[in-house]
Amino acid sequence: MKNTKLFVVSDIHGFYTQLKKALDEAGFDEHDEAHVLICCGDLFDRGSENKKVYDYIKGLQRKVLIRGNHDERLAEILTQKRANVFDVRNGAVETIEEFFGVGSVCGYGDLRVSGREELVKELCGFVAKMVDYYETEHYIFVHGWIPLEHETQRPLIDWRTADAKAWHSARFTEWLQFYGVNDMIPEKIIVCGHRSTRLAYSFDSRALGDSSIYYGDGMIAIDAGTVSSGRVNVLVLEEEQ
Known about the structure:
Blueprint: E1 3-9, H1 16-26, E2 35-39, H2 50-59, E3 63-65, H3 69-80, H4 85-89, H5 92-100, H6 117-128, E4 134-135, E5 139-141, H7 164-172, H8 175-178, E6 189-192, E7 214-215, E8 219-221, H9 226-229, E9 235-240
Parallel strand pairs: 1-2, 2-3, 5-6, 6-8
Antiparallel strand pairs: 1-9, 4-5, 7-8
Helix pairs in contact: 3-6
């Protein structure tokens, strides 16, 4: 067993400059063997530095990448070779054009990536290697929430072995809908993103617009809503691994 320092971020959404600034200020050193970066999903879309985020994250030796709904959707678009109107609003089309060039998504949504199949394969493989969750002795890291039982909306007893459909739904689950009204995981703390912590004003005394980390009872929410706040939260934890 060795002491490891975990630097946890989420919902970077293509904002490399803000990510790097936040990690530097938190003391993250990619060359320190005790430092591990954990991203709780949504590396892409909405920002304009998606390729820089990708190149930086890809180059890190010690990292854990949890699949977010935007990451999942990017791989779907590239596999199906087609985007839709929702992908335009959500920033996925801009992400694809950043990697493949302006005009790589035509007006009807079809992808024009002929001759770039290796890059398509590389990006899809990158997302495929992401995990649904990561667990340590004290923490469970997810994107949205733990998979829930459909009828009771309580965490599945066997959530660790939930199927792909359950984890897909969990990536869209918003922590503020279930925190405080749902069972938590005994002796564990859920760390999640997906919805900005500025919405935590319902649970603590923070001012409207405060997007700092929210420390709840049995959970920690870290999404800073970077697209509007202009900042990235970095949660620093020490664990034995």
